[in-house]
Specification:
The complex is a heterodimer of chains A (293) and B (430). By secondary structure, chain A is mostly helical. Chain A has 16 helices and no strands. With 430 residues, chain B is an alpha+beta fold. Helix content of chain B is 51%, strand content 9%. In chain B, α2 packs across α12, α8 packs antiparallel against α9 and α9 packs antiparallel against α12. The longest helix of chain B has 33 residues. The chains are: A mainly alpha (293), B alpha+beta (430).
């Protein structure tokens, strides 16, 4: 950009500009080529998901170029009719929505206390909570599985939800606490003078003002939990398993089950892609703020 | 830190209010991160289910297990290659996309894989890596390239039948009998599918300076005579044929027509022997086993690269756009070329951002699980093993909770120093 604006200021350099854009030909080709290459795997999955099982198991997806009429919706029809898949999609949604809401709620409450309520021990509590970021979730899988067994939620979606909440919290608290800190103190003073309670300040001032940070956090956590395989694989199975786990099971016979795997994987992608395109800015902000998960 | 610049928050010591706000988070963090961490450390020194204290036995088992050793070695390969590659390529893409009008579109395409489940990524890359060149994208491309370097013959697997008057020299097939000008000779092969539009064959008519060669499929389902052209046996088209003299020099060569016949005009009158050169039998390219024991780890790293380059590009591009424009332009006005601007201004100013990207990737790579678990076929899990995968396998497939915990502690120990670095950065931002 800077280069272009510089050039524009000198009318004489039109020739140089043309020369430059020609000399950049290979660069454009390389960039466009790389972009095309980047799309190929996704395109392959999309095309495969619309091919009849017999064809998909026999030849590569690029063969449809000559025979577009073989594309069919039947794979999608049959997996959506398959109650096993329908239940799995529902589970994926339930786990992602419930854990995202809980993370945001619990983190907002904690972040408010950590930024605006004076209490003994506050100075070490925040670093300790955020410090839990260092713990890889592998450190908690075995004890958590036992704990869920004792409480009786092992093999239910609640096991996955609660676990996601725990491992989402340190980052969420970090993000929201830093945002809440930046809210002008005068606003709170005014509210306190008017006799507002902490709960009222939290729900009427903090939450509305925190929307930008909460939006980033929501998008980020939703994507994370929707796409999760490891946690669900450990704590759920059968009727409680989300789509990732079910597709993974079918992958044991990759070729034979391609008519389930490919459309299933594509359905799994659709929601995060829509969220990504709709809320790109928030997702990337979340990543920029964190760069940690 | 904060209190120096901001007034103290109003309100006195309201411990119980704070506790009400904090309690849910504290309970969840305590029950599912803090307690499990200590419990896992304890379990790593205990027997699997009885939980008797057994000292370092689990750790001893860990360092003597070939599976864990492979996992550690592979994790080292991941750590040494993926973060540096992704950061480097991300930097290149970020700089280039800054300079082109459609840069944002490129960035969105590169970043898209980050939004997708690694399970879906695994499915996509299975399709890329399928071994059969008819099904896998990469092997299809490799087959096309291999066909240019060494074209596959039309008749791979074809061979002379037993007891035929033919012998094989390497892959080439040579007649045992000789033929002179004006004569004909046949080469009957088996192990060939019936060619489309195949015709009943017969030896060709020849003039006195020609030699006729017939190559045919010396087989019919009802059974035929070896070395003789029976009714229902068909000619093989497009087979390269040669005539060779006593000292194996090629004196004439040609290709059979649709009836399996070729008429050659040799110098001299013979005797010659007929030969089908090895090219005809060259086996086709059968595909590289990308996801086999030897190549699985690099292949999976490539898929990981595909996912994460976009992340590096987006973060680095954000860093680039925050650079002081005036400094860059001043340098250009002073006559610095693009490389000098990059080398002496952009790169040093960008170093902290590159550090963040690198460290983030490093942590991701140490904990990598999904993509290996999904992309490597289960039969290759031993060879493609990484630490996080080994932890899961020993704990949840082998139910060796002690060993699994020891591996988890190893992972924890590797992550701690890097994470500590990262958190120091957070506190610096605070």
């Amino acid at each position: 950009m800077a280069v272009l604006s510089l050039v524009r200021k000198e009318p004489k350099s039109a020739i140089r500009r043309i020369a430059r854009s020609i000399s950049r030909g290979p660069l454009h080709i390389a960039l466009v080529g790389a972009t095309f290459l980047w799309l190929l795997p996704t395109l392959g999955l999309l095309v495969t998901s619309f091919r009849p099982a017999a064809e998909a198991n026999q030849s590569g997806w690029w063969n449809v170029l000559g025979q577009l009429n073989q594309l069919t919706l039947s794979n999608y029809q049959s997996i959506l009719d398959d109650s096993r898949i329908a239940v799995a999609i529902l589970n994926t949604g339930k786990i992602a929505v419930a854990s995202t809401i809980l993370i945001v709620l619990l983190a907002a409450l904690a972040a408010y206390a950590l930024s605006w309520i004076q209490f003994p021990g506050r100075d070490w509590l925040f670093p300790v909570m955020v410090g839990l970021l260092v713990v890889p979730l592998q450190m908690a899988l075995i004890p958590a599985a036992r704990l869920f067994g004792v409480v009786g939620i092992f093999d239910t979606i609640w096991a996955a939800i609660v676990f996601h909440v725990a491992f989402g919290l340190p980052f969420a608290i970090f993000l929201l606490r830093n945002f809440f800190k930046g809210i002008p103190v005068e606003l709170l003073d005014a509210a306190r003078v008017d006799g507002a309670s902490d709960w009222q300040i939290f729900s009427r001032i903090m939450l509305p003002l925190g929307v930008p940070a909460i939006a980033s956090l929501t998008v980020f956590q939703f994507m994370w939990t929707w796409n999760d395989l490891l946690v669900a694989l450990t704590f759920t199975s059968g009727d409680s398993a989300p789509l990732t786990v079910i597709i993974r099971q079918d992958m044991r016979q990759f070729g034979a089950n391609l008519d389930i795997i490919a459309p299933g994987a594509f359905l799994l992608m659709v929601v995060p892609l829509l969220v990504f395109f709709a809320f790109q800015r928030y997702f990337i902000q979340g990543l920029l703020a964190g760069s940690i998960k | 830190m904060v209190r120096k610049t901001k007034p103290k928050p109003p309100g006195g010591a309201k411990g119980w209010v704070a506790l009400a706000f904090l309690a849910p988070a504290i309970v969840v963090l305590g029950a599912l991160i803090l307690y499990p961490t200590f419990d896992t450390i304890a379990q790593s020194f205990q027997a699997d289910t009885t939980r008797e204290w057994i000292g370092l036995a689990n750790y001893r088992e860990m360092i003597s297990s070939p599976r864990v050793i492979t996992a550690i070695r592979n994790t080292a390969i991941w750590v040494l290659t993926a973060p540096i590659l992704i950061t480097g390529v991300g930097l290149i893409f970020a700089v280039i996309t800054e300079h082109v009008g459609y840069g944002t579109a490129v960035k969105i395409v590169l970043f898209m894989p980050m939004a997708i489940s690694l399970l879906a990524t695994g499915v996509m890359w299975r399709l890329v890596y399928e071994q059969d060149p008819d099904k896998g994208l990469l092997n299809a491309a490799a087959a096309a390239a291999a066909n240019v370097v060494e074209p596959s013959g039309d008749y791979p697997g074809a061979r002379p039948p037993n007891n035929a008057p033919l012998r094989t020299e390497g892959r080439a097939v040579v007649t045992e009998e000789t033929v002179s000008s004006g004569g004909t000779i046949g080469i009957g092969l088996v192990g060939v599918l019936e060619p489309p539009e195949a015709k009943q064959t017969a030896p060709p008519e020849t003039s006195s300076d020609q030699v006729g060669i017939v190559v045919w499929r010396d087989f019919k389902p009802e059974g035929g005579r070896v070395g003789k052209i029976d009714d229902g046996e068909v000619g093989l088209p497009a087979v390269p044929v040669e005539l060779i003299d006593k000292s194996d020099n090629v004196v004439a060569s040609g290709i059979t027509g649709s009836d399996g016949n070729a008429l050659l005009t040799p110098e001299g009158s013979g005797p010659f022997r007929a030969r089908v050169p090895p090219d005809a039998f060259e086996p086709g390219f059968s595909g590289i086993t990308w996801l086999g024991p030897t190549l699985a780890t690099p292949a999976i790293i490539v898929a990981f690269f595909w996912v994460h380059v976009g992340f590096a590009v987006v973060i680095i591009a954000a860093g680039l756009s925050a650079l002081p424009r005036d400094v860059l332009e001043a340098a250009r006005v002073d006559g610095a070329n693009e490389w000098q601007v990059f080398r002496y201004i952009t790169a040093p100013l960008l170093a902290p951002v590159l550090g963040v990207v690198f460290i983030t990737l490093l942590i991701n790579v140490l904990k990598v699980f999904d993509i290996v678990y999904v992309l490597a076929p289960p039969s290759v899990h031993d060879e493609a093993n990484v630490i996080a995968l080994e932890m899961w396998r020993s704990a949840f497939t082998a139910h060796q909770y002690g060993l699994g915990s020891a591996v988890a502690v190893l992972l924890f120990m590797l992550v701690i120093p890097i994470m500590a670095l990262n958190i120091r950065r957070f506190r610096g931002d605070d």
